[in-house]
């Protein structure tokens, strides 16, 4: 029987970005299909908000020193792993509203796994190179098209059913206790963070043997 | 202040642990193995002011903050995850879940580590004893520190002077210094000036400290 693995991501999360490829690798190893879904973070609510210039000068600041420490660490941490994998991860200059791109994910998801993968790979790669405005509906529509999706009706979906589905999903996820990305759900267990991949692997392998500890492990090398 | 040490920039690794945090306890075995396997020079430091405990993370009053309801619901969701992780931690440590939730003010134990650092070359025995006593035996009395120290080759009179004298201020200064270095969560590691929060980084630290040979564990 095919296992069900749900993975929740947000395109504006650097941690979700660097979790993407190890997650693909794991799914391929166990021949499991992933149900990718958007969990759109309201980062400003827990890490404050700020805007910085191209050169890193702070233009607007609503963060405490400790919130800055957390934000700076998150980017530094994600970047060191990204650079070891040859990925470009440039810190964002503001807190983005990623809901349009997330609704694009819901649209692509309806059109099959390979279209969704094409779309997700493109969004992540370009966004983290600062080459993609994920708040621009036309940009997202064009990207869906480029990823192989049929975009007829997308603008109506984006303004209506897609927005409703997205917003309702976010409400449901909070009630379920999913609060960050990436979140993995398998066998009724909820795991938050890429460091949980050894445990996801343990489930996929039949949940036998000792329960593993968390680790930024070698999913891509295994 | 002769016993107060600042964060080392010459040791191979600085390891910061919170004696009230079961995740720090769970990180101990892997951290000790890393130090032993690679014969590392290490500085063990206490950390007892995690970011999540600080008031800056507390939501504003409901009437002032339009996001208050969202924040409260997210905090609840986060708490659910914390509880699930505690269950997993107690399973991995093979200790009762209740022992992961014991109310324990780790300040005295943290000051104890500063004291031991000042008088002994290797603080790992003290660290193991504190964690074992708190999480395995469920003892959280502040007297546990004096009891553990009495089993080590240290002068208890010096300890009393330290804990009643410069110790608390030394701890505060250390926490400020750690925060300025970007260490705000336990277990925290510093290698070549770079911070790593969480035991999930142990594979990468091992890779770097072994000479960065072969594929990186990423």
Structure explained in plain terms:
- The complex is a heterodimer of chains A (222) and B (218).
- Helices cover 48% and strands 12% of the residues of chain A.
- By secondary structure, chain A is an alpha+beta fold.
- Chain A has one domain (5-204): Glutaredoxin.
- In chain A, the strands form 2 sheets. In chain A, strands 2-1-5-6 form a 4-stranded mixed sheet, sandwiched between helices.
- In chain A, α4 packs antiparallel against α5.
- The model of chain A has no long low-confidence stretch (mean pLDDT 92).
- A 4-stranded mixed sheet of chain B has the order 2-1-3-4.
- Chain B has a single domain (13-209), classed as Glutaredoxin (3-Layer(aba) Sandwich).
Give a short summary of the structure.
The complex is a heterodimer of chains A (222) and B (218). Chain A has 222 residues and is α+β, with helices and mostly antiparallel strands. Helix content of chain A is 48%, strand content 12%.
Blueprint of the fold:
The complex is a heterodimer of chains A (222) and B (218).
Chain A: E1 5-9, H1 14-29, E2 34-38, H2 43-47, E3 49-52, E4 58-62, H3 65-84, H4 99-109, H5 113-127, H6 137-146, H7 154-159, H8 161-176, E5 183-186, E6 189-192, H9 197-204
Parallel strand pairs in A: 1-2
Antiparallel strand pairs in A: 1-5, 3-4, 5-6
Helix pairs in contact in A: 4-5, 4-6, 4-8
Chain B: E1 13-17, H1 22-37, E2 42-46, H2 68-93, H3 97-100, H4 107-119, H5 124-136, H6 143-150, H7 156-164, H8 167-180, E3 188-191, E4 194-197, H9 202-209
Parallel strand pairs in B: 1-2
Antiparallel strand pairs in B: 1-3, 3-4
Helix pairs in contact in B: 1-2, 1-5, 4-6, 4-8, 5-6
């Amino acid at each position: 029987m095919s296992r069900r693995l749900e993975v929740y991501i947000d395109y504006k999360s650097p941690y979700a970005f660097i979790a993407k490829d190890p997650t693909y690798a794991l799914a391929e190893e166990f021949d499991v299909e992933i149900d990718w879904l958007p969990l759109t973070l309201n980062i400003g609510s827990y890490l404050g908000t700020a805007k910085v210039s191209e050169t890193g000068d702070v233009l607007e600041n609503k963060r405490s020193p400790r919130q800055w420490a957390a934000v700076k660490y998150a980017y530094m941490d994600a970047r060191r792993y990204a650079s070891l994998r040859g990925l470009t991860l440039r810190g964002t200059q503001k807190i983005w509203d990623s809901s349009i791109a997330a609704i694009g994910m819901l649209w692509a998801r309806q059109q099959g796994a390979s279209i969704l993968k094409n779309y997700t790979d493109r969004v992540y790669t370009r966004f983290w190179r600062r080459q993609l405005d994920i708040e621009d509906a036309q940009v997202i529509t064009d990207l869906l098209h480029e990823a192989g999706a049929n975009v007829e009706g997308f603008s109506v979906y984006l303004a209506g059913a897609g927005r409703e589905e997205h917003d309702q999903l976010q409400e449901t996820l909070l009630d379920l206790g999913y609060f960050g990305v990436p979140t993995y759900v398998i066998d009724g267990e909820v795991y938050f963070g890429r460091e949980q991949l050894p445990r996801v692997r343990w489930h996929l392998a039949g949940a036998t043997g000792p329960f593993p500890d968390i680790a930024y492990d070698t999913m891509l090398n295994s | 202040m002769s016993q107060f040490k600042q964060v080392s920039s010459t040791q191979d690794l600085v390891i910061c642990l919170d004696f009230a945090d079961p995740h720090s306890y769970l990180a101990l075995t892997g951290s000790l193995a890393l130090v032993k396997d690679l014969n590392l020079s290490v500085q063990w430091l206490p950390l007892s002011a995690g970011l999540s405990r600080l008031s800056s993370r507390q939501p504003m009053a409901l009437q002032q903050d339009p996001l208050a309801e969202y924040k409260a619901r997210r905090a609840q969701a986060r708490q659910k995850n914390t509880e699930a992780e505690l269950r997993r931690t107690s399973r991995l440590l093979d200790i009762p879940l209740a022992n992961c939730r014991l109310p324990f003010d780790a300040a005295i134990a943290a000051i104890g580590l500063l004291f031991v650092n000042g008088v002994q070359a290797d603080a790992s025995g003290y660290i193991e004893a504190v964690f074992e006593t708190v999480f395995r035996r469920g003892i959280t009395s502040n007297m546990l520190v004096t009891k553990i120290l009495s089993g080590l080759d240290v002068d208890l009179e010096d300890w009393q002077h330290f804990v009643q004298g410069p110790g608390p201020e030394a701890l505060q200064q250390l926490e400020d210094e750690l925060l300025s270095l970007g260490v705000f969560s336990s277990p925290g590691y510093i290698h070549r000036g770079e911070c790593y929060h969480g035991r999930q980084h142990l594979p990468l630290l091992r890779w770097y400290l072994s000479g960065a040979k072969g594929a990186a564990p990423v």
